[in-house]
Structure formats: structure tokens, C-alpha cells
Amino acid sequence: MIAGIELGGTKTVVATGTADGQVMEEWRFPTASPDETFAQITGWLRERGTPGDIGIAAFGPLGVVPGRANHGQLLATPKPGWAGFSITRALAAAFPSARLTLETDVNAAALAEARLGAARGLDDVAYITIGTGIGAGILSGGHLIHGALHPEFGHLKVPRMPGDSFAGVCPFHADCLEGLACGPAMAARWGAQAADLPADHPAWNTEAWYLAHGSLSLLGIVSPARIIIGGGVSQASGFHEKTGALLEEIAAGYFTPLRQTPYVVAPALGQQAGIIGALLLTDRHTGPSNP
Amino acid sequence: MIAGIELGGTKTVVATGTADGQVMEEWRFPTASPDETFAQITGWLRERGTPGDIGIAAFGPLGVVPGRANHGQLLATPKPGWAGFSITRALAAAFPSARLTLETDVNAAALAEARLGAARGLDDVAYITIGTGIGAGILSGGHLIHGALHPEFGHLKVPRMPGDSFAGVCPFHADCLEGLACGPAMAARWGAQAADLPADHPAWNTEAWYLAHGSLSLLGIVSPARIIIGGGVSQASGFHEKTGALLEEIAAGYFTPLRQTPYVVAPALGQQAGIIGALLLTDRHTGPSNP
User: Fold this and answer.
1) Does the pTM of the predicted model rise above 0.90?
2) B118-267 belongs to which homologous superfamily?
3) Is the separation of the CB atoms in A240 and A266 below 8 Å?
4) Cβ <8 Å between B156 and A250
């Protein structure tokens, strides 16, 4: 039996399925305390059998590199009760023989879109999500990128849009990419939620400017063959085309990968990307990961 | 017999040595036309034996992903005579049974510094070089990053230093990172070569600002455990400390990898990084790469 878990800040998804990403049965429920949430997950799974493989896509910051002391642990998250909680230990207590494979939610979504979604067949893909914050998952040469921790894409800096004097909302950096372009930044700039701003509102030009510059940084550092932009604040009609056109303009003919069009696209798997990614992870188990 | 080749825009190095990066014998000479240069390389090697493995670190743009049609080829380089030249074909003609492993010069230098130099023992390392241009090689989770082409780090954009109105020298983008901070940009800004600017000249504050912001983009995208800055325009005393301090300031306590200090360092292998990296590549052969 193969299981997938998507652990989000507000909702959790647990599923049974296949290592090639087919969901057989799934349950979505609000994320509660760590103990309660994992009791619900393991209880639901136990009713269905004993999983041999479990793929987990979780919010972060999270120890994702097998062999490091913090592997499987939630790190310095502001979410009450979760900092220091070991996901792998909780699952190993319930299913001692299961093989666990753990990833950040954005990396799992990047993998799912690369295998079954908007970047099908590509091995070099970046997946940006814009919501309460801005994050990115990266598949590079078929490997998911971790680095020393894992990327905190939203907190890099890009040039200001000419004439933009908005202070930014990031409590650490004020005007980093996230501080200028996340959902709360849009709400503070325009006095309305992103979902309520019409597609021809100037807000989307500003948003496209910052996302095009963030995409240019991805191009210069990991050279993806396609960039997917998802998340709640990306759903205005024409937003991906606008961002792609601006990216092409600022790239000024320089970056070869841009010749593949469309280069900036919407996700194809929508809300399912995380749980599909979690199932796909079970095929990428690289060694003992139980605590 | 194991051979390494470093093919640079102005100089070429050919060596015999070991797969763990020990140079036994090497020859440096000016890079000429493709045919002439490769006749010199293969002639020198033939006098010493028949290499079973050859690692090649070359300038770019370059097809580096095994299995792609352009593998082993110099792509749209402005260097006269080199665009379209197949390095792997030239070497396979001379040594049909040799296994060839090919990388960009910056990736080879990143690998060499990670194995034997300033980032010894780390699997997540970025190597920035500042000279005529600005480039970066990246080792991530032990894998060298290629992406759809390979990173063109110098051409991403970062915020202007407050008060800086220099137009930039990049013929494509004017004020991309390379346009604002490469060697020719320094010369145009200050009317002197970088090597002639004293360590307390304000030029180095400007240079540190741009490199700190470029480093922040690396942190946000590949989360390296250490960043090495090399190349001709990085040798002023205190430049790495200055860049590291500024990076810490703009990161504002956010990025965990920065807790490892020093985080921004000078290379340890100097001029030898490329050829040592070429030898190390012979240990990373992943499949048939002869054309």
C-alpha cells in the first residue's frame, strides 16, 4: 500500500494511491495540533491497511535532507506547537516498517507538475506559488533542489518597478520580492484582495513586473525549461501571459530557454499538485529515512 | 591514463593526473583556433599515452547535458571560429575509446573548490567569478546544475545601490548584475582597472553591494552552504568580508545557511581550480558521451 500526505498550514490531505501519482482515495481536513493531526492521518491510513511507502509534502521550514540531524523535523515555524515536531518520528511510531520520503510542499508540487501537469516531460522546472507568502520549488536535471536548508525564494530582492514607492510588507526585509508582491502586499497596496481585483486593474502590471524579475533570477541561476506560477494570487485572466511577455522584454533576447513558448504558465493540477507530488515522492526514496 | 582539459577563452590547460584531482603533469598555452588548439591538446596527450577518461572544463555557452543533440558543442559564442565546434567530436576522433565528461568552467571550479578547496566537504556550493563577465557554477546536493542550458548568472537583475546612476555596460541589458559590476564596468565607473583600485577605494563598497545582492539571489534559489567569489575582480583585500557583512545585513537574520561563517570566501585553489575540476569530472561520468 502506498500513501501520500500533504501537510499544509491550514489543511491536510491524506491519500492512498500509486507511485506514478494516481490518487485512489483521499481525505481533506483542517490541520489541527501536531499530535491530533497525525492521529487523524495514521488512524485513517490504518483503516485502509499498512503502507509500505509514504510520501510527505509538508509546509516548512523543514529538514528535508536524509542523513542530517534535523531530517523530518519542522524547524523555526511560527505555527504554534509545530516547531521541533518530527514528522518522520510520528509516522515511524505508527508504521515502523514504512519507507518515508519527505519534501517541501513546493518541491512536491514542482515534481507533480513536471511529471503529470503543465511541465510534463521536462526535467528542469521551477514552480512559484504566490499566496500569503511567495515560495518556489525547483526540479533541476531531475533532482529536487534543497541546498543547505531549502530555497526561501520569496526573500530575494529585485529592482523596484519605476515609480513604485510602496514600502513592502515583509517583517524581515520590507521590500523583498514577497514583501512587494505576496497576497497581503496586494491587499495593502490596492485596498482589495487579489481575487477581487479585475484582470485589467493596474495591480496586475505591478504584480507581473515583480514576478518577471523573480523569474529572471531563476533563469540566471537554475535555467528552468519552464516556469509555472500558481497559488491564490495568480489567477487573474492573462496574468501568466503578461508576466511572460515582460520577462521576455527584460531578458532582451539573452536566455535560450525562453525560446520555448509559452514559458511562464499556470499549473495544470490545481489543488491536487501537492498530494500527487506526495505520491510521486514514494518512487524517489533514496535510503533509510526513519528516525 | 586520466586527462583533464581546461579550455578558456584566452588560455588552455591540458594535464594528466588522477580522478581525485591530483595533477601529475600540465601544460598551459594560449588558446588558438579550434583545430589548432585541439591538435595541440591531443598531440601533447598522445606523447604521454592513451587516456581512458578525459574531463573537460570549457568556456560557454556549451551543450553540457548528455543525451541532448548539442552535447559537447560550443553554442552561440562570439569567439571567432568556435560557435558550433564540437569538443567531444574532436576528442573522440583522437581517442575513440576515451570516456569524456564535459562541464562549464565555472561548474568545474565549483566542484574543485567543494572537493579540495575553500568549500571542502560541502555538497551545496556556489562559485561566482568576476572578470570580463560575471558567471556562477553551482553544486547542489552533490549535483552540478545545468538546467535547460546552464545558468547565465551575470544577467539577472538586482536593486540599484542608492545613489548609483551608472548606466551599466552590458550590451544586452545595460544594468544587469554583470553590466553594473564586471571588470569593464569597474573600469568605466572609476577610470581604472580593478587591480589598480586600492582596497579602501569606494569602488569596493559599490562592488560589494552588487555581489551581496547577487549572493542573496543564490541564497533564495539554491541555498548554498558557502559562496566562493573568485576571478580577477575579487582580489582587493577585505572584499569578501565586506560582501559577507553586507549580505548578512540585507538578509536581516532570515537565511539559516548564513549562520555558518565565514559564508562568503575567496577560492583556495586559485588558477588551478579549472584543471583540478576537469580531473575530478572523470569520476562523474554518467553514460556514453562520445558523439
Assistant:
1) yes
2) ATPase, nucleotide binding domain (3.30.420.40)
3) yes
4) no
